[in-house]
Amino acid sequence: MQTTLTTRKTTTEKRVALATVIGTTIEWYDFFIYASAAALIFKTLFFAPAGNTLGTLLVFATVGVSFLFRPLGAFLAGHFGDKIGRRAVLVTTLICMGISTAFIGILPTYDQIGIAAPIILLLLRIVQGLSAGGEWGGAVLMAVEHAPQNQRGRFGAFPQIGVPLGLLLASGMLALMSGVIAPGDAFLEWGWRIPFLFSIVLLFVGHWIRRSVEESPVFEEIKERKSSSKTPVKDLFKNHTLLVIVAALVFAGNSAIGYMTTGGFIQNYTTAVDGTIHLPRTTILMSVALASTIWLIFTWASGCMSDKIGRRKTYILGWIIQLIGVLALFPLVNIATIWSVTLALCILSIGIGMTYGAQSAFYSEIFPASIRFSGVSIAYALGAIIGGAFSPLIATWLISQTHTTHSVSIYLTFMTLVGLFATLALRDRSGIPLGPDHEEEQKNKPFSWQK
Q: Which residues cross the membrane (predicted)?
């Protein structure tokens, strides 16, 4: 009997791990395919009348504006995730993301319908932002709350590696279309649409997998005890506002640097026709795909490492490596060879991965069970706004004002240090019980300065 229960539990854990990594890969493929396409072609297709510089700023603004709606998605997902369950929210966010992405694939351009084209594009991007805001919290809680106590970092890394996998898939699809299937003018005319329409296939796969996963055991226990919060978001900010802010700053330090590639800045900077660096579009996409693989490997490694040495120590090591990557980024990129750009992105991706893999477990262990979905989702969404939302836009503006990439390096260094100090402010709570029976213990002294 015991063997049967153990086998069933192991099977459930494997199914959850598979579902979270595939689900988040699909969600972030949808999210990143927009950012990559925006940097490469949307300026031409949707914002051409604005001119080159303003068009570039407007494109990156559409990338960033979706982040402003992530908190709303996080508020909604947190409320319903803490009240009706993690799984239902995950299925809903996946459907919304997939449909909005597919609609971008059939959207007429500015030349075809005028000003309506960028307006509709912006609205669809907002839907993507709402979906992304609700996706992450549910995925990580499904993974971490199903995990054995001593393997939360490893299980929590599964939804985390879905992010670089999504970028890898998005970059690979665009490279395939622009370099092989629809090179040259064909890519601008119709080839760019195929990766967006491909989202329909991914949507059906992801929906089927997520529907097959059992609800989080922590939420099932909360429901059985009828101990869920009636107003989880209100309770979160009433009792844990400072914790949300500090946790958000941890992710801000990672996302500001991560969105140099996932937000499209490096792709635009290294391929712009009127720029100082003009490398082939397909080649840069392949470099980003390789860097995504490095990001994935070190995300997984840091998640597993956090089970051995703790979340906080893993993060501190990650911030040091990320700082090295930030300082090396533009000196290497400005050499203006494909090898130097690829090396810069790979070094940067090591640090990004090391400050990302432990985040699922780290966040899950600092918020109490009754408001955990709201806490992790809202902290993540706010961190994305503070850090990643407008980092490509800020970087573009800094270069236009200072005419040097040194200003961008200073900005990225500052954000890395913000993440480091926010991490130092939080207590390592690796292995703390996650169930509703330990609510008071979970609330107790989350900050490192509290005795």
A: 16-42, 54-76, 88-107, 165-184, 190-209, 242-262, 282-302, 314-332, 338-358, 378-400, 406-426
